[in-house]
Amino acid sequence: IGLPRMILETRNRLGPAGAELLASLRVPALETLDLAGNELGATGAMLLAASPIVRRLKSLDVSDNQLGDAG
What we know:
Elements (H helix, E strand, L loop, with lengths): L4 E3 L7 H10 L7 E3 L6 H9 L2 H4 L3 E3 L10
Parallel strand pairs: 1-2, 2-3
């Protein structure tokens, strides 16, 4: 998919399950991912951090997701 930017900020309530789905996507052109305010939690943050999708990003916003110390 030739998608350079994905903005899913605020009130989408993706949660850890949504983070897991995003982590599994094959989006080689993605450079910007905005997930601010989506209730990802520490589990969702860890799933994203382990994903190859995050390694290619130039910008990642996971602010306001109650990540805690583990996230």
